[in-house]
Amino acid sequence: MEGKAQFEGEILRMLHQLNARKEKIQAEYSKQIADVDRQIEALQTVQTTARLLRESGEGVQSSATGIVVPANLRGKSVREACVEIAKLNGGVVKIGEATEVLKSVGVIRSKKHAWGATYTACARSKDFEKEPSSPGTFRLISPKSDAMQQMLPVRPM
Question: How much is the pTM?
Fold first, then answer.
């Protein structure tokens, strides 16, 4: 009988050890899960803020490039998006910066030809003129100058 009591006592001791080990592991994982939950909550807050800024239609300061970017670029062509960017940045579009912005907001999906697509869209557009002193830079042609040119009389040759 004594052997049976010792055996049961040993089993109870082992069960207590295993339960203590289980509780310790649960406590460690609970801390890790709480950390991940906080990170998820923080990212959801950032996502909500970005969505609200996009929906508001206001300009957003792009941290990557330092240029002002309108939030309503989605659904626009590359040329239209470049015109919007230029309007908010003193009439100037730098192709490298605009390309990064257009990729980040989803106007351009392919990274492979993004720079060329942006450059070509501006170069072929009647809305822009190339800045001769600055490579990869285009200036928005003001609508006033177009209207003024149309009003000027044509001289016969």
Answer: 0.50
